[in-house]
């Protein structure tokens, strides 16, 4: 589904992403971990063609993402609040996103009912602009907006970071549900090793721009990662 070849991104002559080869299969749920500055967000930005590569390429369905827009039709992402339109209310934003994908209001309203628990009464009908929501609630809007798009590829950067424990649990089951559908390729970055190992079938560990580990999640994965990060301290 996604192939990375000889991908290098440098800032001030330092390679912050340096991935000779990475292949992500259709339907995989991948957890992306790594300490601050490891290059996770930069990798997402390269995958979304938000920044230029210095070398190499990211291919989605065999096509270089920097050379065409086809991947935008089936790829949804939420990296940060900058992806939202903050002078809209959540409803207006969801309808807008829906309209870009040919989905009418009635359909969006029906879909939004599925996220009632996740929203916990704080998102819809509150007559607030997105900019006036808490960071955690903005994150909920961003995540649900990606899911409304019914994507084939879903990229979420630290979705657990600002949300409360109840929402984290709900988000985990949402992501697990997506993973079980097997037609959505999901990459989720997180500093929470418990959450990320629970929702992912494969873990990619980055450090200083390079992939240090690429492992299938198993019974020992959490302890393997904890050991790695404790030695890194
Ligand atoms: N626009 C930029 N200009 C200069 N350096 C940058 C820029 N964007 C990212 N970097 C650097 O690239 C490196 C990787 O940053 P990145 O944000 O990708 O890491 P990360 O793994 O997402 O970190 P975190 O876990 O803290 O979010 C860091 O050293 C960062 O300072």
TrEMBL record:
It comes from the Bacteria. CDD domains: ABC_DR_subfamily_A (cd03230). One of its GO terms (molecular function) is ATP binding. InterPro entries: AAA+_ATPase, ABC_transporter-like_ATP-bd, ABC_Transporter_VariousFunc, P-loop_NTPase. It comes from Paradesertivirga mongoliensis. This is ABC transporter ATP-binding protein. SMART domains: AAA (SM00382). Residues 2-233 form the ABC transporter domain. Keywords: ATP-binding, Nucleotide-binding, Transport. The keyword ATP-binding applies.
């Amino acid at each position: 589904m996604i192939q990375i070849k000889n991908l290098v991104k440098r800032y001030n002559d330092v390679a912050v992403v340096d991935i000779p080869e990475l292949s992500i299969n259709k339907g995989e749920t991948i957890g992306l971990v790594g300490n601050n500055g490891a290059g996770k967000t930069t990798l997402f930005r390269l995958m979304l063609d938000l920044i230029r590569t210095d070398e190499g390429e990211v291919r989605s369905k065999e096509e270089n993402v920097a050379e065409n827009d086809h991947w935008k039709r089936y790829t949804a992402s939420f990296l940060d609040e900058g992806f939202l339109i903050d002078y809209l209310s959540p409803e207006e934003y969801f309808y807008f996103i829906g309209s870009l994908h040919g989905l009418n209001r009635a359909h969006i309203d029906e879909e939004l009912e599925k996220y009632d628990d996740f929203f916990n009464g704080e998102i819809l009908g509150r007559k607030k602009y997105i900019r006036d929501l808490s960071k955690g609630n903005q994150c909920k809007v961003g995540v649900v907006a990606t899911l409304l798009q019914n994507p084939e590829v879903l990229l979420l950067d630290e979705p657990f970071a600002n949300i409360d424990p109840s929402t984290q649990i709900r988000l985990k089951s949402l992501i697990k549900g997506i993973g079980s559908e097997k037609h959505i390729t999901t990459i989720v970055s997180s500093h929470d090793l418990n959450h990320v190992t629970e929702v992912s079938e494969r873990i990619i560990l980055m450090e200083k721009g390079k992939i240090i580990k690429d492992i299938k999640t198993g019974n020992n994965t959490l302890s393997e990662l904890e050991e790695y990060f404790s030695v890194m301290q």
